[in-house]
């Protein structure tokens, strides 16, 4: 065993899509005894060839290991349903993207069956698993995290957020929201530039440094948001910015680009303007999002 490998420990992975396969692979590479189950059993073949053990059923995957990771696209509760006795005493790590109400219900149901529940949000793509760029958010049972953290460290950097099981799921969705905002904005921008002849590659040297420069505004935004003071030292007031936002929407219409991605921010900016905050920084749009 190399110095980076863990003491062999039994761990099960339920769900062998792109992500579950990456998680199982790194657990094999770091010396664990890995049992796998997938609804479509053929997806396990490559992992079996690398030393994973096949569980014929979900019950077997639960019975084989104390720590059971689930990484599905959906249907986590349905997959675990009817396995009450097999779940008792286990640590269930749910690495499936989900909604807070689903997470709370699952955590409560598993807790009442005598299992410890950890919810996880994977902030990485499958090729990033096992590299320093991957980070995974966890919340739920602190004892379970403590006991499983050596195994879980194989996936990337672990961030344990607290006992409330929904903390990881909501933070995961929040980070994805930032990502989809960025990607959606990039796609809209590239469609707009494309309408006057730029290829995406030609536009990239303009949009990439622009986004990187705008990212530096986030600490100032965070301070304004936490203090609720969007009026101090205003450099780019909302009145001015809302004209630019409406120009984007109007230009998109006239250039044949669907403005649907930009319309919500135009609506929120106008709501904030109508509330009398035109001379504030645009960070104040968060108050309109919060229904204020
Ligand atoms: N891929 C990424 O970049 C990425 C990044 C971060 C987080 N994640 C999260 O990781 C999770 C898995 O994503 P993935 O990329 O691995 O998805 P995927 O490649 O589409 O695989 C989906 C997995 O879910 C299983 N599944 C779907 N519906 C099921 C059901 N009703 N009953 C039992 N199994 C079911 C599939 O089984 P079959 O093989 O039988 O269809 C497969 O194992 C998701 O929650 C996703 O948000 C993914």
Q: Give the CATH level 1 class of the largest domain.
A: Alpha Beta
CATH superfamily of the largest domain: NAD(P)-binding Rossmann-like Domain
Count of domains:
2
Radius of gyration: 23 Å
Distance between the ends: 58 Å
Short description:
With 292 residues, the chain is an alpha/beta fold. The chain has helices spanning 18-29, 45-49, 58-64, 76-80, 84-87, 100-112, 142-152, 166-194, 200-215, 218-227, 238-254, 263-274, 285-289; strands at residues 10-14, 33-37, 53-54, 67-70, 91-94, 116-123, 135-140, 157-160. The protein has an 8-stranded mixed sheet with strand order 3-2-1-4-5-6-7-8, sandwiched between helices.
Task: Characterize the structure shown.
With 292 residues, the protein is of the alpha/beta class. It has two domains: 10-163, Rossmann fold (3-Layer(aba) Sandwich), CATH 3.40.50.720; 171-289, Orthogonal Bundle (N-(1-d-carboxylethyl)-l-norvaline Dehydrogenase, domain 2). It is built from 13 helices and eight strands. An eight-stranded mixed beta sheet has the order 3-2-1-4-5-6-7-8, with helices on both faces. The chain binds NADP nicotinamide-adenine-dinucleotide phosphate. NADP nicotinamide-adenine-dinucleotide phosphate binds at residues 15-20, 38-40, 43, 71-75, 79, 96-97, 122, 125-126.
